[in-house]
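Page 37, continued from 36.
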């Protein structure tokens, strides 16, 4: 008991490095203005894409792909099998888990499924074609986000080569450097490694000038920039670190900035003990014990009730932030996707699509 107390005492000192919610991080209630669309009709819409006809597309936890248009939600396709238990832990791999997506220059929806790989969906027929289902012979466990270069090359984040997506909590706890960025040419069907050694590579987006990509290293609460062209091609740098939460998806917005959803928060006062991951971070033995002995869902009891959406600039400055203190409307944010003056908000656990107008996030005050 004394040993545990001493350990706990040493751990809590890490909390002094947590961000403080002031300045651009000052708490507001912008996210509480959100409207819940299609509540109870969809589970876990996590990422979005837009088509040239104004349609918005998303994927759900049961492997289905959806179209949102004219206030209607319609089924487009499935990435895996059709089964009554789709959406469950047991059948996630078989049913599929669509993650990042984007409509390409041919009008097809390119989807990254955590397990199935890179898929091409014909939006007029719903036909799904597998473009890549492995890398160098190894099947995928946890593909995540994507973007497309002007030449059609698909850039993909792979969060882990050890843990499956459904066991994401263990990857977060272990703080492994098993994430990587892959590139895939849909024409030649060739794939290659862009970068590896990343901490749970999550959200990914091209920069506005398309010279680099931004990658959310979720378990390190930071965003890394990887240069794709010019004299610094191949080089990487930490764009912003010590974020007030664990970054999920990153999306460009109309102001030349980036929306960054936070899957959970870590800031001064967010928990009586401090951030759970900050507490166990320096102690690999403790982390190994946790992943072996504690059921993964129990980790959720450590999550503070506060949702945050960040807006960051090209140079990594946090421009502003949008909050739901108490998580009365949202438990957390996977992605904020802007299409025109509409902002769609998703999270892999919520049973609705969140919706805000752009001006609602730009209003001063609460």
């Amino acid at each position: 008991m004394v040993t545990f107390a001493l350990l706990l005492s040493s751990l809590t000192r890490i909390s002094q490095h947590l961000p403080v919610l002031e300045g651009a991080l000052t708490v507001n209630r912008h996210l509480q203005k959100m409207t819940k669309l299609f509540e109870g009709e969809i589970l876990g819409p996590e990422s979005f894409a837009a088509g040239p006809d104004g349609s918005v597309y998303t994927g759900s936890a049961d492997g289905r792909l959806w179209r949102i248009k004219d206030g209607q939600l319609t089924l487009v396709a499935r990435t895996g099998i059709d089964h009554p238990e789709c959406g469950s832990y047991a059948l996630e791999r078989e049913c599929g888990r669509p993650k990042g997506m984007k409509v390409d220059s041919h009008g097809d929806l390119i989807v990254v499924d955590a397990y199935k790989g890179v898929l091409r969906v014909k939006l007029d027929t719903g036909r799904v074609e597998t473009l890549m289902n492995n890398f160098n012979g190894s099947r995928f466990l946890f593909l995540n986000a994507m973007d497309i270069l002007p030449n059609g090359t698909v850039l993909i984040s792979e969060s882990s080569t050890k843990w499956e997506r459904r066991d994401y909590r263990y990857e977060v706890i272990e703080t492994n450097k098993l994430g990587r960025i892959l590139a895939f040419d849909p024409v030649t069907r060739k794939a290659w490694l862009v970068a590896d050694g990343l901490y749970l590579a999550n959200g990914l987006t091209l920069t506005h000038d398309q010279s680099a990509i931004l990658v959310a290293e979720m378990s390190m609460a930071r965003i890394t920039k990887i240069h794709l062209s010019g004299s610094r091609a191949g080089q990487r740098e930490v764009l912003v670190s010590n974020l007030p939460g664990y970054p999920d998806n990153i999306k460009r917005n109309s102001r030349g900035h980036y929306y960054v959803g936070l899957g959970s928060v870590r800031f001064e006062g967010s928990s009586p003990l401090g951030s759970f991951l900050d507490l166990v971070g320096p102690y690999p033995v403790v982390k190994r014990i946790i992943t072996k002995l504690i059921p993964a869902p129990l980790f959720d009891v450590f999550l503070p009730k506060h949702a945050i959406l960040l807006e960051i600039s090209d140079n990594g400055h946090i421009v502003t932030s949008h909050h739901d203190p108490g998580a009365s409307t949202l438990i957390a944010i996977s992605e904020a996707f802007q299409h025109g003056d509409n902002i769609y908000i998703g999270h892999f656990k919520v049973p609705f699509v969140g919706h805000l107008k752009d001006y609602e996030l730009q209003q001063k005050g609460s």
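DSSP finds six helices and 26 strands in the chain. Flag for discussion at group meeting. The two ends are 45 Å apart (CA to CA).
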